[in-house]
């Protein structure tokens, strides 16, 4: 009605309650498509509504009626969420921890905190597979490798491993491999951290290794069956021992030596490489990465050239680009599980790239002299403390040399720890008469005075730490003092002011494509929005500054979050119990299979060790099964990409007596909701096996169906895919596992802190320990927690529906230009789909790699390449990409299709065309000579949006996979 000008002033209008609801609701920020767009997009796929598209896609037989949470069902607004997280953070009590054991307080340089850890330009990147648009983080990771290599004194380092304990277990596996599995004992010195020992013991089971822990002086190799020995330097209780003779003796007996070590100590101690160690492992946490109640932190593993092909994890190498300039790339990938599957060196896929970058930048910022100064300060404070204790005479200081950890014997350790507790100080109680005190970068001289008061046990202290300083002498034996230089490369000696570091980090960041630029539609990797509200709590002191072995009553905020998150995940997955220990998807797989193994054993079925895995499975599946000592039986897929059920049935029946598990991904890795999944689960159960579901595709299940509902017994979730933890350029991740009730007693435990859970009746034993910290990388759990709590049950269900919608919308647009490989019974795809490029090899000489590289010129990261089907691209748009962004990506692919057509119809040369020449970096485009048969302008600006904003690849294609310098900066 438009009665302009008459009586407007007296009209009354009521305000709806709806209009008064908070304006900062979250689901509409995460889920891109509006209700109108949803209908339009569904219509373009031939359905009247989003729901009818989803109904046609997800089989009715597995559909959930609805998802309902007992908490957060409605979803909190962003401001309510922040409020809630602040309350949780406040429930965590930040005491000063001197516990050590591999975790230390550290000053995270604010410039690194804000510009890397809190910066989506660094944390939203993918693993640097596409080297031309990843030179920044590749350089930073190479810095990390150089740092590790220099400090350990060994030439080869990876970037990176999940934590120190699992790094030690990987080293143990290397020793086993080096000895070709012929020597079946691995010895661990009792001066290693307890969590390291337990992880190795658990891991050894799968390799059929015997782990013997022994006091250093009791170690002998008489059995002739020893493949390796693990010692710690400095030891868990602080002692610094000269292992020179020990190593010679081990080598004389044909035994490899692994040393767990500490980077800060190695700035002043003789490096393990110079002592003769074969492998060195440890954590880079205290190089500027917060403790975070256990992680995430980067662990390292260094070794000699001789064993480089046996190394686990990602390795960055120096190669050359098409113009002959040095350029970086991931190296030696043929070791990895994507190619080697069950023969891989390890199952490590997602590692700790972001944290490795932080540690590397810490070293870049401080430089070798700065690091030494920190180390000497820490050592000096420990020295002052030890001297003061001697003067006090209330306790007895151990006589051995130490770096940062002082061990004391006392009448009543608990009494002293209680006194410390009253001053908000945590000490490590080794036993009722032994305490250790570990100093770190953040300890002050006043802190030492406080400690004197505690240890004085009521006696007056008639000196101060400052007054003692001049009397302190270093206790490190001269033979163990580091003489060799380290970090001599200019990168570690140029950026010591904040401006210089800021610009260096910015320079690297600008070379890398991240979600700040465009969608990264990597099939199976679920690169979705990592919302700011989700990320904020991660760097709050209430979460960052808690030692993982601090008494749990100091971590009530964390514990409450674990309980809530566990409950939410149980509801989402249809499971009864969750373990938050595994630090990545692959470690979740390993943990889940070990749960199954422990379950069979508890029933006397020690022989059940056959694991059926479809050929289309992710490489980590067979690699993880191999680590559990399982025998792998592969089953094929049918023409539609579904598991060949008859073949599966035959395999299950043939292995009926020994069947342990099936590993299955759902929806399938081919992006299809297989109709036969319930039957598949039944076949396995009928033959005595358990069903392990790989939860990587959970984004297509949440709210619509669930692993528990479908019939799985165990499943890992990739919180860094479905539940919004950013990929960090190759980690961190979290891979918690959910289980049905009958498997709950077997979930991982921890030797230092009880992880709670279901008390195991006599015979039922937890599988052991699979990560160094009881709740894995606790610090990043707020991300997934806030995502779920803000989305609520409806927001999450909508997310799954819109993820399916977006994939179908793109598939529909692209099907006129490219064959789409697999579809469900009604012709729809799940949340991802495969574009088949195989035909273009014959018609135009074009391979998936050429398309991925040309996409860089259009400002995009290529989709998943040649997996699970060689010669294809797998696209997963996720729910958080807008229609405009989906269209832009489709436009790019359609434009590239036209470029391929030019080759097909002879207008462009088969060998010299815009695809084969891609990507086109400025250095190439602006060179004085240009000999390509297409224009510079077309090479760089093939689409209109590039005129508005252009992301420039910094280097051109690689001539060769040849490595100049395998894994460190060249001087
Ligand atoms: C990502 C992925 C994994 C492995 O997870 P990580 O966290 O990288 O170890 C396993 N299976 C599938 C299908 C995946 O996509």
UniProtKB/TrEMBL annotation:
Keywords: Mitochondrion, Oxidoreductase, Pyridoxal phosphate, Transit peptide. Residues 799-920 form the Glycine dehydrogenase C-terminal domain. This is Glycine cleavage system P protein. It holds the Pfam family GDC-P. InterPro entries: GcvP (IPR003437), GDC-P_C (IPR049316), GDC-P_N (IPR049315), GDC_P (IPR020581), PyrdxlP-dep_Trfase (IPR015424), PyrdxlP-dep_Trfase_major (IPR015421), PyrdxlP-dep_Trfase_small (IPR015422). It is an enzyme of class 1 (oxidoreductase). Residues 29-455, 473-748 form the Glycine cleavage system P-protein N-terminal domain. Belongs to the GcvP family. It is found in: Mitochondrion. The glycine cleavage system catalyzes the degradation of glycine. HAMAP family: GcvP. It comes from the Eukaryota. One of its GO terms (cellular component) is glycine cleavage complex. GO terms for biological process: glycine decarboxylation via glycine cleavage system. GO terms for molecular function: glycine binding; glycine dehydrogenase (decarboxylating) activity; pyridoxal phosphate binding. It comes from Vitis rotundifolia. Homodimer. The glycine cleavage system is composed of four proteins: P, T, L and H. It catalyses: N(6)-[(R)-lipoyl]-L-lysyl-[glycine-cleavage complex H protein] + glycine + H(+) = N(6)-[(R)-S(8)-aminomethyldihydrolipoyl]-L-lysyl-[glycine-cleavage complex H protein] + CO2.
């Amino acid at each position: 009605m438009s009665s302009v000008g008459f009586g407007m002033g007296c009209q009354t209008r009521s305000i709806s309650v709806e209009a008064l609801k908070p304006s900062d609701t979250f689901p509409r920020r995460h889920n891109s498509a509006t209700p109108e767009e949803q209908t339009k997009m569904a219509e373009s796929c031939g359905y009247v509504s989003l729901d009818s598209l989803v109904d046609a896609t997800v089989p009715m037989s597995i559909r959930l009626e609805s998802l309902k949470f007992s908490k957060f069902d409605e979803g909190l607004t962003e401001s309510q969420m922040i409020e809630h997280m602040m309350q949780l953070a406040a429930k965590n009590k930040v005491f000063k921890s001197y516990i050590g054991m591999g975790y230390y307080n550290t000053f995270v340089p604010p410039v690194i905190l804000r510009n890397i850890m809190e910066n989506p330009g660094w944390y939203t990147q993918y693993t640097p597979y596409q080297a031309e648009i990843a030179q920044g983080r590749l350089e930073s990771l190479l810095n990390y490798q150089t740092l590790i290599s220099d400090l350990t004194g060994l030439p080869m380092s990876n970037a990176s491993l999940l934590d120190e304990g699992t790094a030690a277990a990987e080293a143990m596996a290397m020793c086993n491999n080096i000895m070709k599995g012929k020597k079946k004992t691995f010895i661990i010195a009792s001066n290693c951290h307890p969590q390291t020992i337990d992880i190795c013991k658990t891991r050894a089971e799968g390799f059929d290794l015997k782990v013997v822990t022994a006091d250093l002086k009791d170690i002998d190799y008489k059995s002739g069956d020893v493949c390796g020995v693990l010692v710690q330097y400095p030891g868990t209780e602080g002692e610094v021992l000269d292992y020179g003779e020990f190593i010679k003796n081990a080598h004389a007996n044909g035994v490899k030596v692994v040393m767990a070590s500490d980077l800060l100590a190695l700035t002043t101690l003789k490096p393990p490489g110079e002592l003769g160690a074969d492998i060195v492992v440890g954590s880079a946490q205290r190089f500027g990465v917060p403790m975070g109640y256990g992680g995430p932190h980067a662990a390292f593993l260094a070794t000699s050239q001789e064993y480089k092909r046996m190394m686990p994890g990602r390795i960055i190498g120096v190669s050359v680009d098409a113009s002959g300039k040095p350029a970086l790339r991931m190296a030696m990938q043929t070791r990895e599980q994507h190619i080697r599957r069950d023969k891989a060196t390890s199952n490590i896929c997602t590692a700790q790239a972001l944290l490795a970058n932080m540690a590397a930048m810490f070293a870049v910022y401080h430089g070798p002299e700065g690091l030494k100064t920190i180390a000497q300060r820490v050592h000096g404070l420990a020295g002052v403390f030890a001297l003061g204790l001697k003067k006090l005479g209330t306790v007895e200081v151990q006589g051995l040399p130490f770096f940062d950890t002082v061990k004391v014997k006392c009448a009543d350790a608990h009494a002293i720890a209680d006194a410390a507790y009253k001053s908000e100080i945590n000490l490590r109680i080794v036993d009722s008469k032994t305490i250790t005190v570990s100093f770190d970068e953040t300890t002050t001289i006043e802190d030492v005075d406080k400690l004197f008061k505690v240890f004085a046990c009521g006696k007056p202290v008639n000196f101060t730490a400052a007054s003692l300083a001049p009397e302190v002498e270093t206790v490190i034996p001269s033979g163990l003092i580091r003489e060799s230089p380290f970090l001599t490369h200019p990168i570690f000696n140029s950026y010591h002011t904040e401006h210089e570091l800021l610009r260096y980090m910015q320079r690297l960041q600008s070379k890398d494509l991240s979600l700040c630029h465009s969608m990264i539609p990597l099939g199976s990797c679920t690169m979705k929005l990592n919302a700011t509200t989700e990320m904020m709590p991660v760097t709050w002191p209430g979460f960052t500054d808690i030692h993982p072995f601090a008494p749990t009553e100091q971590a009530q905020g964390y514990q409450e979050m674990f309980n809530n998150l566990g409950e939410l995940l149980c509801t989402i997955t249809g499971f009864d119990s969750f373990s938050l220990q595994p630090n990545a998807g692959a470690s979740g797989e390993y943990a889940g299979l070990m749960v199954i193994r422990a379950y069979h054993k508890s029933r006397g079925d020690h022989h059940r060790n056959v694991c059926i895995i479809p050929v289309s499975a992710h490489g980590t599946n067979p690699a993880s099964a191999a680590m559990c000592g399982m025998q792998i039986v592969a089953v094929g897929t049918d023409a539609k990409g579904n598991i060949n059920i008859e073949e599966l049935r035959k395999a299950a029946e043939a292995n009926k007596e020994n069947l342990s598990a099936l590993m299955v991904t759902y929806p399938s890795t081919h992006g299809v909701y297989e109709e036969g999944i319930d039957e598949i689960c039944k076949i396995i159960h009928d033959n005595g096996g358990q069903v392990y579901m790989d939860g990587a595709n959970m984004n297509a299940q949440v709210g619509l169906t669930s692993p528990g509902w479908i019939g799985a017994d165990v499943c890992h979730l990739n919180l860094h895919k479905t539940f919004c933890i950013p990929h960090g350029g190759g980690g961190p991740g979290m891979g918690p596992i959910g289980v049905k009730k009958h498997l709950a007693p077997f979930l991982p435990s921890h030797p230092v802190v009880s992880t709670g859970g279901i008390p195991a009746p006599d015979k039922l034993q937890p599988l052991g320990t699979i990560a160094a910290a009881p709740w894995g990388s606790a610090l990043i759990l707020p991300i997934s927690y806030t995502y779920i709590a803000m989305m609520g049950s409806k927001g999450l269900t909508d997310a799954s529906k819109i993820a399916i919608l977006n994939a179908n919308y793109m598939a529909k647009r692209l099907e006129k230009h490219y064959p789409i490989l697999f579809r469900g019974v009604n012709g729809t795809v799940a949340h991802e789909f495969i574009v088949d490029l195989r035909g273009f090899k014959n018609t135009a000489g074009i391979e998936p790699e050429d398309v991925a590289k040309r996409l860089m010129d259009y400002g995009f990261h290529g989709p998943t390449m040649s997996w699970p089907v060689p010669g294809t691209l797998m696209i997963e748009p996720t729910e958080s990409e807008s229609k405009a962004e989906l269209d832009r990506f489709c436009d790019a692919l359609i434009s590239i299709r036209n470029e391929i057509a030019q080759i097909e119809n002879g207008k462009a040369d088969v060998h010299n065309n815009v695809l084969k020449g891609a990507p086109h970096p400025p250095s190439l485009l602006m060179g004085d000579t240009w000999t390509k048969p297409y224009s510079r302008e077309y090479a760089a600006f093939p689409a209109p949006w590039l005129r508005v904003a252009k992301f420039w690849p910094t280097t051109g294609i690689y001539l060769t996979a040849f490595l100049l310098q395998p894994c460190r900066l060249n001087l």
